[in-house]
Fold Inner membrane-spanning protein YciB.
Amino acid sequence: MAERQINPLLKSALEIGPVLVFFVAYLALKDRVFTIGGEAYDGFIVVTAGFIPLMLACTGLLWKLTGHLSRMQVVTAVLIVVFGGLSVWLNDERFFKMKPTLIYLLFGTALGIGLLRGESWLRTVMEGLMPLRHEGWMILTKRFTAFFFGLAILNELVWRTMTTEAWVYFKTFGLTAAVFVFFLAQGSLFKRYGLEQDES
């Protein structure tokens, strides 16, 4: 089923809003400890517990409004439930911090498998956004594969060697900036292999 178009600001709010709410809530509660059922939970765990239903609600609303969710959105939602749930259940923030690593490893591996088959599975997901020739898709897919693996390694380095607060800043702003810079760096590829240029 084709994706229904909705207000771009609303779509962005549903996609990015939960992450920003998590960030703000963490800053407000990071130094507090909550005793629930006789067990002490720090602010990070409590905020994670609230983030899971918020993310699911926004994802569900996005699906209801557009009639479509990407594979990336579905996988992300599932991993948030699994790893966020483990962090809350076991009162161990490490599981939630590992979530981005696993997401990037899964996407990198999936794209790598497609490349081994001589296919660009990235094209299946993004062709409507960026019409490219086959050669362009293959090059972009190779770059995305390396990029995802690089982000997985970077996330591991940050959460294992830095404070929780530093990781939250990195997750909220650092990873977003990395994706933005990565796309900017592909400008020459889009110009060289774009279908519009071929047709002109």
Residues 93-200 form one domain.
